[in-house]
Amino acid sequence: MSNLGQFDSDFYQSNYNIDNQEQSYNDSNAYGNLYGSRNERPQPAFVPPEMLVSSSYAGQFFQPASNQDYYSPSSYVDSFDEEPPLLEELGINFDHIWQKTLTVLNPLKPADGSIMNETDLTGPILFCGVLGASLLLAGKVQFGYVYGTSAIGCLGIHALLNLMSSSGVSYGCVASILGYCLLPMVILSSCAIFFSLQGTFGTVLALVIIGWCSLSASKIVTSALAMEGQQLLIAYPCALLYGLFALLTVF
Asked: What would the pLDDT profile of 53-111 be if each residue is shown by its tens digit?
């Protein structure tokens, strides 16, 4: 117990007092004055007077010109209105299709060479599809023969016309003319739905349709390619081609 009492007296009888605390506070202030305070703001850097821009500058500043018409919504509306229709961009003109159809249906009507010289395959594809569909209704699945005969026949007529014509002709133009002139053959295939063509009447009707198609095709070709006086020479190979379609329709 004597040892514990001596330890307590030694612990509470320390040499530290309030004077020592004030002395340490004064020492910290002296240290701060010697090396600078942390809260002190840094001095601004030195800037040469030449780099300072004077408010009395009399030069010209670049200001980009603004075009109000470019940002106005009316310009976008005008550009949209000036765009051609979608069907015209695709090369589909219903007026020309109707005029070509009327030219084929009337072999005695003169053909317009500027319209017939276009590469328009909308009507030919439509007429080939209708021909195959009418043969299907008649109990004959001939879609492959229809499209195969059309492609090979157009190649043969295209080669022949390039030999006969001095100006030459494109394959698309030949396919367009021969395809439009296939319309009378669609009428023959439609008749095969209702009655049989394997007889005298069917043979005569098929010959009339073949002459109709070949006459219309030769008329359009001579008008489009300016091949006057050669209509009969063109009508003969066209009659052979349309004769193949008549055989598919009758038999």
From this structure: 555 555 565 566 555 555 555 554 555 566 666 666 666 777 888 888 888 888 888 77
Q: Does this model's pTM top 0.70?
A: no
Separation CA 135–CA 189 (nearest Å): 6
The string of pLDDT tens digits covering residues 128-187 is: 999 999 999 988 888 889 999 999 999 999 999 998 887 788 888 899 999 999 999 999
Q: What is the 3-state secondary structure (H, E, C) of the chain?
A: CHHHHHHHHHHHCCCCCHHHHHHHHHHHHHHHHHHCCCCCCCCCCCCCHHHCCCCCCCCCCCCCCCCHHHHCHHHHHHHHHCCCCHHHHCCCCHHHHHHHHHHHHCCCCCCCHHHHCCCCCHHHHHHHHHHHHHHHHCCCCCHHHHHHHHHHHHHHHHHHHHHHCCCCCCHHHHHHHHHHCCHHHHHHHHHHHHCCCCCHHHHHHHHHHHHHHHHHHHHHHHHHHCCCCCHHHHHHHHHHHHHHHHHHHHC
